[in-house]
Amino acid sequence: MHADLSRLTFHPERHYSAVVAQQGRVQLDADANEQTAIQLHRARTLAADLIGRYGGPRDAAGFRVEYVGGKHDIDTLYIHGGRYYVDGILLDADRPAPGTPVPDENAETAENAKDTATPPSYWTYWDQPDAFRDPEKPGDRLPSPAQSPFVVYLNVWERSVNAAEEPSLREVALGAAMPDTAARVKVVWQVLPLSLAALAIEDADPSKEVVRAAFDKWAQRQAATTARLAARSERPDHADEDPCLVRPDARYRGPENQLYRVEVHAGGEAKDATFKWSRENGSVVFPVDALDGTWVQLASLGHDDKLDLDVGDFVEFTDTAYASRLEALPLLRVEELDLPGRRVRLSAEPGPGVGRLPHLHPFVRRWDHREGPKRRGRTAALKGGAVPVAEGEWLPLEDGVEVYFAKDGTYRTGDHWLVPARTATGSVEWPTDPARRPLLQGPAGIARHFAPLALVKGEESAVDLRLAFGPLAIGIPAADEATLAAEEQAHREELAAEGPPHGRSQTTAEAESAVEGDE
Predict the structure, then answer these.
(1) Per-residue DSSP letters for 199-254?
(2) Distance of CA 498 to the CA centre of its chain
């Protein structure tokens, strides 16, 4: 996730069950975050083992889908509330109930308030909270079931949310001059359509079993990634020209500890893919107050020279909708700064559908790559403001940090790798083999999860593809006469086996009984 982190230390293959704090020690964000990751991993693994890949509680299963078309201006889906699990991840489809305002004393205003339509209890395809479908985009519209049935499915993943996107995360008591505190991770669910052709199903009326089997194969292909990356630190040629801020023999030449984030910008094959990188894990963001052509009014500037904007920086102008859609937007260059007015001028105006709606919380994210000089006979010209992927060679980032993309990879927007760089060792932290050669690693995220919901054949004709499970707990049956008699007999036998009370012998008990009889 995009957050100001020192590093991420959770690795499930290490089988740690808890993080143990020690007295008098420095507490780092990595320790607390690893404890959270351990608990989340265990809970989701347990849920997936018990439930399976996907399923919902029998009496409260969510995401029942209805197709509504024909009589409406545009086809849509009704997505009904409830809970559902995908790979152990809990999803909640319940729509929050609207609040009740204090009655207005003005009679006319109060009467108008009564006429305000109450939103339905279900979501629709067009207003679902995390998909941000646009009726003006042909690719977002639902297929026509009259031409061919289609599958409706869940796309599930997680993304980070910071105070720029969710202002309520900021504690106002700290003041505007203070940085934000903790970020959040949000589960994103999107209900999307998929054609039978994409599932390689030729039958126009397939059974549930056929659709589920074909969907599982498709989901495995979508979830898998062939992109691999390695990182290392090499002492750059110009190291002798640098001031003596680090050890002369250090391979990482940066003056500070950093967490580099290498993120795929535009996906696809290597010839089309691009990437961007940040030395701050992509956490340097600026909320946007207004947009006027190429001029952007920011709510605040950086808190110091390290976390501000400068001419030549490349930024991503985006908002909550595009962050959730995972669509690559052109990265724009900062051309001019107006510090007193908290304004920046960008190299081009952002796209017409981005950042114009205040409730979508537009923001600017800074990236730290630059357009580099020629190397090895090839120019390092940027494409759409991002760095083209070059496989099979080491690509320099800065201060001796280099990355290597393996050949024959397929890249997806949002996939990323994290590379901690440390001044204490003058190197980067990256797994190596016994010969200290960097190992190729898959992306640290984004993990994508999928589940089929329905096969839509037409109006009011959606075949439910969800799975359900019942509760494990059952009622305790009442005991019958035979059981009660057996329990009573067992109790008498147990008393007889224990002998007289208080450990008295049989002779003593008989003597006491005789004395009591004489009296």
Answers:
(1) GT---SS--HHHHHHHHHHHHHHHH-----EEEEE---GGGGGS-TTS-TT-S---
(2) 63
For the segment 256-302, what is each residue's pLDDT rounded down to a tens digit? 999 999 999 999 999 999 999 999 999 999 999 999 999 999 998 87
Q: Which residues, 6 or more positions from 358, have their beta carbon under 8 angstroms from its beta carbon?
A: none
Helix (H) or strand (E) holding 113: helix 107-114
As a residue count, the chain comes to: 519
State the pairing for strand pair 416-422/427-428: antiparallel
Q: Mapped to the 3 state alphabet, what secondary structure does 156-204 carry?
A: EEEEEECCCCCHHHCCHHHCCCCCCCCCEEEEEEEEEEEECHHHCCCCC
Return the bridge partners of 288, or none: 298
Percentage of the chain surpassing pLDDT 70?
Answer: 89
429-451 as b/e: b if 16+ CB within 10 A: ebeeeeeeebeebebbbbebbbb
Q: What are phi and psi of 487, to 5 degrees?
A: -65, -40
- Asked if residues 67 and 144 have their Cβ atoms less than 8 Å apart, the reply is no
Q: Pairing state of beta strands 363-367 and 314-318?
A: antiparallel
**CB contact set of 281 (below 8 Å; sequence gap of 6+):** 2, 3, 4, 5, 259, 260, 261, 418
454: helix, strand or coil: strand
